[in-house]
Amino acid sequence: MPVDAARFAALLSAIASRQDRDAFAELFAFYAPRVKSYLMRLGAPDSQAEEIAQDVMATVWRKAGLYDSAQASPSTWIFRIARNRRIDVLRRTQRPPLDGEDPSLQPIQALAPDEAVSVAQAEQMVRDLLPSLPEEQLVLIHAAFYEGQSHAEIAEQTGLPLGTVKSRIRLALEKLRVRLGGGNDRPV
Amino acid sequence: MNQDVLRGELWAAYAAGALDPAMNLLIETQAGVAPPAARILGMAEAISGAMFEAETPAPLRADALERVLAKIANEPAEAAAMRAVSDRNDLLLAEISTLPAVLQDAAICTLARRKWKRPTPGLRVLELEVESQGKAELIRIEPGLSIPKHTHEGREYTLVLTGAFADETGRYGVGDVSFADPGVKHRPRAEPGDVCWNLAVTYGALKWTGALGLVQRFLN
After folding, report:
1. Are A72 and B45 a contacting pair at CB < 8 A?
2. Cα–Cα distance between B142 and B124 in angstroms, integer?
3. In chain B, positions 110-129, which contact chain A (CB-CB < 8 Å)?
4. Chain centroid to CA A141: how far?
5. Are the C-beta atoms of residues B136 and B128 closer than 8 Å to each other?
6. Can you tell me the distance from the alpha carbon of A80 to that of B15, in angstroms, rounded to the nearest whole number?
7. H/E element holding B135?
8. Is the separation of the CB atoms in A115 and B39 below 8 Å?
9. Interface residue A98 vs chain B (CB under 8 A)
10. What is the C-alpha to C-alpha distance for residues A122 and A181, in angstroms, rounded to an integer?
11. Residue A96: closest CA among chain B residues belongs to which residue?
12. What angle do CA A168, A172, A176 make, to 5 degrees?
């Protein structure tokens, strides 16, 4: 079921401008159980996940005035609050530094003209494209970008060779990129 | 190609909140000085945000909404955050107030308890209070100044915030990250012109070579 980002953005604005409790209740009904589920996925027991989820939603109320729909969708914005709260409360072993071969360390080039869409537009495109990824790629993107597992951890858990993990993640991101660029990117 | 960096582990770990806090600060600061980096960060967060949205809901207690409403009953929604640097006459603070907000906050919190160090004339270093396996330092280099040659036991990532510097591995301008592997010896030199502010994140101790190294050895 597609989520109506514009509707949720309007609810946040109603909270900010007139402390609208009905708007908050609607946001709460959708997001609070997802925040709780996210926390439990990362190992929080039920009672602690419940407490942090309530806390996160109280923060959503307080900070609603800072939400900017040009910068992020409501889901991404609320996830950021949940993630940061989780970092503060549930300290996990954080990832050690990367090795020098990691592609993250390549220089970042200036945007190509076809990439110069707004952050919000790019986000919508990512969201639309993710479900079209093959399942075997999607689960790896989920593990890396959402559950925060390193490629080595993913390899260990799935039993896939590390090279396969890396190449499937690369393929998935290339699909997102090619389609974001309208299919005009050079072949890789 | 720009999005190639996304397939590395750094941005995914950032988006998932699994990154060491010092590195997290570096990534957020980079987004504040380099729009292409902000775009990459936005893409990574778009992916994690979409996955969060698709999360299977876990029901809360029946009275959860009531409890939250009670908690926020008397709280007005916050206005946009105000960030004021108290003493504009302080040259360093005035310069810091031009840096990305996330870094300003870290520096100002730290300055309540810690002072700047001056390892050599023209060089100022503030070790930021970040709960990290590594070390995050805000560094100010006078234009044209060379940093004494030093080597690394661990890995060092240096993000340029203003000005530029060059060393044996290349030239680094605003938004660039220089990466030094363990064992690399280098002698960075700030370019003439603007003051060069950097955020350096180091995992493992930094060893000075040459005369300053000697001093450090005596001190240790």
Report:
1. yes
2. 9
3. none
4. 11
5. yes
6. 8
7. strand B135-141
8. yes
9. yes
10. 10
11. B20
12. 165
Instruction: Please list the residues that pair with B158 across neighbouring strands.
Output: B178, B200
Of A25, A100, A119, the CB nearest to B181: A100
Instruction: Kindly determine whether residue B53 and residue A97, on different chains, have CB atoms separated by under 8 Å.
Output: no
Smallest CA-to-CA distance from B19 within A77, A167, A150, A35 is with A150
In order of B12, B27, B128, B162, B205, the CA distances from B201 in angstroms are 19, 11, 10, 17, 11
Cβ–Cβ gap A173/B46 under 8 Å = no
Encoded tokens for B53: 């949205």
> CA-to-CA distance for B75 and A62, rounded, in angstroms?
7
What is the value of ipTM here, to two decimals? Answer: 0.88
pLDDT tens per residue, range B145-172: 998 887 777 788 999 999 999 998 899 9
C-alpha dihedral (B32, B127, B23, A162), degrees to nearest 10: 150
- Computed over every residue of chain A, the mean pLDDT equals 85
Single-letter residue type at B145: L
* Mean pLDDT in residue range A76-103: 78
- Amino acid, single-letter form, for residue B5: V
CB of B48 less than 8 A from some CB of A: yes
Please identify which residue in the block is written with the tokens 């950032």: B14
How many other CB atoms sit within 10 Å of the CB of residue A29?
Answer: 12
Chain B residues close to A40, C-beta within 8 Å: 58
What tokens does A51 get?
Answer: 């407490």
Q: Which DSSP string do the residues of A48-81 spell out, in sequence order?
A: HHHHHHHHHHHHHHHHGGG--TTT--HHHHHHHH
Distance CA(B26)–CA(B135), nearest Å, equals 11
Residues B110 and A113: their CA atoms lie apart, in Å, by 41
Phi, psi (rounded to 5 degrees) for B136:
-115, 125
* Tokens found for residue B159: 């993000």
**Strand-pair category, B196-203 with B135-141:** antiparallel
Residues in chain B: 220
pTM for this structure? 0.84
CA B132 centroid distance within chain: 12
